[in-house]
């Protein structure tokens, strides 16, 4: 499945909803119970009482979209059932949709840019020189 970009906001309704609702009904739930705008571009995630079903509602810029999934075996790992909303990262949403333990997924730490240009090329040259020296030493021993 193609997942959302890392910049997308993902909001999870922690309380199960009536899964007979379609995209309009879920958009009303987003507005009323989550107090959010269903047309903001964020992804809103809902689950049924049975933990093997999940629905996502989001605005893609041209229309309201509804995504539904039912696991054939297993259940979706869900936050503690209580009233409220929880935020997930895009990586956590991808894990959730696969039925994996999304709590174990964390965003990658930002890696600082190198401070010295060409450092890796310099180091590669040193490694190659070390290899040449070892080969020459081994050849001289024969």
From TrEMBL:
Species name: Bradyrhizobium quebecense
Top-level taxon of the source organism: Bacteria
Name of the featured protein: IS66 family insertion sequence element accessory protein TnpB
PANTHER family: BLR8292 PROTEIN (PTHR36455:SF1), PTHR36455
InterPro entries, per database record: Transposase_IS66_Orf2
